Amino acid sequence: MSVNSPAMKAASHESILARLQDDIDRLPNALARIAKYILENPEKVLHQSVAELGEFAASGEASILRLCRQIGFSGFRDFKLALAAEIGRPGLPPTAAGTADSALQSLHDTMAQNLSIAHNNADSETLAKVAAALAASRRIDLYGAGMSGITAELLAYRLLRVGLTAFAFRNSNMAHEVASGLSPGCVAIGLSISGLTVDTVQFLKGARSAGALTVAITNRARSPLEKAADFTLQASGLQDHPIGGTLTSTIGKIFVIESLMLALGKAMDKPVAK
After folding, report:
1. Angle 8-17-94 from CA coordinates, rounded to 5°
2. Is 108 part of a structural domain of the chain?
3. Which of 79, 119, 156, 194 has the smallest C-beta neighbourhood within 10 Å, fewest atoms?
4. Which Gene Ontology terms describe the biological processes this protein takes part in (predicted)?
5. Single pTM value for the model
6. Among 63, 62, 56, 61, which Cα is nearest to 38's?
7. What three-state secondary structure class fits 260?
8. Could you give the strand order of the β-sheet that contains 231-234, starting from the edge strand earlier in sequence?
9. How far is CA 182 from CA 129, 154, 168, in A?
């Protein structure tokens, strides 16, 4: 593809990862799954074929090519070349004092923005309803993949501290097997930043089929996970590019967890343990 071609001009106007991040909430599910995988694993994508990417993103090769064209590339090869150039730029700033201070300020601003978005998304009525269900539940199962799995364990810990029976799973097979024991009076909570993680969506669907009340904690309100949930607690937006597994995208979820614990304290009519 020529550097002067319309496709390259369109692609170079905005970084690839920024474009995918901006568009993911409006993409069809198949394309959104591909975008999610690319955003979370940009370095891996550089070494994958179309078929391999399709397998890992649970989407067809035609969908991958469609996404490439939608963001301004003639094909997957051109897309990978541009992505390589983008993430090949130095990821860490020089250690000069001024530049380091600027990088720390940028990190602070990102985390503060995520916290602010989570606060704006907080719905007291929904929090109260979920808290009431948790307070009355006989069992709470939580599932999340990757970083969301770690967040699920943090929420399970907080629930255990107030005397509730909570189990967090990061292994999808175990989560699905154990979920068969759920029934009315139980609560299942699925955590996913993108709301597109297939195993997490299936976990909530299975729990709902068993009669459990289902809750989604996600950064993407309109998503397959939201459709599988009786209640959705939205954390931050999808601004982050999680290269290297940064923790900034979890800040909003931590706020949601602590907001839920405040509501749970009221529902249980006693202070929440700290």
Report:
1. 105
2. no
3. 119
4. carbohydrate derivative metabolic process
5. 0.69
6. 56
7. helix
8. 166-169, 139-144, 186-192, 213-218, 231-234
9. 20, 21, 14
